[in-house]
Specification:
five-stranded antiparallel beta sheet; alpha+beta; YajQ-like_sf; 37% helix; nucleotide-binding; UPF0234-like_C; nucleotide binding; Alpha-Beta Plaits; 9 strands; 163 residues; 2 domains; 4 helices; Nucleotide-binding protein FZC78_14815
Amino acid sequence: MAKENSFDVVSQVDFPEVKNAISAALKEIKTRYDFKGSKSDISLDKEEIVLVSDDDYKMDQLKDVLIGKLIKRGVPVKNLDYGKTEGASGGTVRQRAKLVQGIGKEDAKKINTLIKNSGVKVKSQIQDDQIRVTGKSRDDLQQIMAAIREADLSVDVQFMNFR
């Protein structure tokens, strides 16, 4: 009997890397001239990044610095879900960015449809917030991986447990 090969499609965020990116962004903000005397701050509150700044313009600059540091650390910025900007104490503005973990139902359905329409002989099943793909040939599984990478999804996906 032929051995079944499989892999899992997941969407995860590495929180230690997020903390390191926030530390690096805060260090840069303290040394930048355009943030001199500013009340800008970035903090991690459970699974949310909280951005505080003087005004909307500085908030955009703060987001740019943070995104640059997250990309440098290999954290997927597609998994950031920004809330609306709200007023905070002391005349500042605050914005929360939720770190999305796991594949949502819409993206899972999109991935399953993509796999079925590819014509490759593999099976896929949704398991909570991840998808398990099984097939006889490793080449078929790698074709599916390439197709999923090309798909336009709302979150960044990784492939785990390839065996």
